[in-house]
Amino acid sequence: MGELRRLACLGVPDGGTAVRPLVWKLLLGYLPTERAFWPHELEKKRSQYSAYKDEFLLNPSEKIRRFEESKLLRKKELNSDKIGLLPRAKVTNEEHPLSFGKSSLWNQYFQESEILEQIDRDVKRTHPEMPFFSAKANQESLRRILIIFSKLNPTIRYVQGMNEVLAPLFYVFKNDPDTSNSASAEADTFFCFVELLNGFKDNYCKHLDNSQVGIRSTLSKLSQLLKRHDEELWRHMEITTKVYPQYYAFRWITLLLTMEFSFNVCIHIWDAILGDPEGPPDTLLRICCAMLILVRRRLLAGDFTANIQLLQHYPPTNIDHLLHIANRLRGSVAS
Q1: How far apart are the C-alpha atoms of 50 and 46, rounded to whole Å?
Q2: The CATH number of 2-30+112-198 is which of 1.10.8.270, 1.20.120.610, 3.40.50.1580, 3.40.50.720?
Q3: 170 exposure class (CB count in 10 Å sphere: 0-12, 13-18, 19+)
């Protein structure tokens, strides 16, 4: 794995469509290092995802219908006219669509509707310029993944912009030339998405914003990193012009740079983020710091307005040079 990480940091070669899906699955820990275990692990995870879809994507009436159907089957009281139906007199308060009970499936369903609507809106806005993401089937896959994630992670749920983090993973796995893998891209993407966000989840928890592990702490680490490597630039940014990281780096960090570069360039940057042995969170901060150093002359010459505009609309750059600068900062992120 050490050699694989080293090579990934250099970037998967152009035309790496065939190898990148496998490399990312290994780097994210979705696949074990022992190849002999791959078939069993993939079958287990894909089956688990199928169970998640059954559990989390059915509407309450369908859940109740299936529950009643299985109950009647056990009692051997089914007949052709009443399969899965509840007699009106037997509909309990908790099963009624107007119930406000905490255990009511309908109450939970309506409370989640706002999140589902936000997911729908964001999925439709995901890279509309790319035919791949405009395809209905692919949008439905993204939607299902985000819904299941939100229900399995109630402390985070869905945070606007997660669709942008999900998109590169799904794109890479869905375009796997191995049809058996591309057919299961949705399941594979879900578990890799979970693994990826596991290292960044504190950035998405509102109740941790002011803690030592939340997004403000992460932004503070970026500030410290810049000060350590370029105090002149840090002083101009944060003391002279008062351009603090929260004004420009919040999006960089929470969306893993997906909005700062073109999609293909982002894929290349992610090779390094996923492959670096220091781990994605520290690697991302080093790349963010390198982005500042790379445009230091323009930043030192700019005032508050000019620098905000520059960093919120980061200019096209040589990505290999950017990653080279980030690599020189290795081992310097504050713990």
Answers
A1: 6
A2: 1.10.8.270
A3: buried
- Looking at the chain, the domain(s) classified CATH 1.10.472.80 span 206-328
Q: Which superfamily is assigned to 206-328 in CATH?
A: Ypt/Rab-GAP domain of gyp1p, domain 3 (1.10.472.80)
DSSP string, 238-296: IIIS---GGGTHHHHHHTTTTTTS-HHHHHHHHHHHHH-TT-HHHHHHHHHHHHHHHTH
3-state secondary structure of 219: helix
pLDDT in tens, 216-239: 999 999 999 999 999 999 999 999
pLDDT over 90, % of the chain: 70
Give residue for tokens 């190849």: 35
Looking at residue 12, its amino acid is: V
Residue whose entry in the numeric block shows the structure tokens 């290999």: 320
| Overall residue count recorded for the chain in this entry | 335
Q: How many CB atoms lie within 10 A of CB 172?
A: 23
Could you tell me how far CA 198 lies from the centroid of its own chain? 9
**pTM greater than 0.90 (yes/no):** no
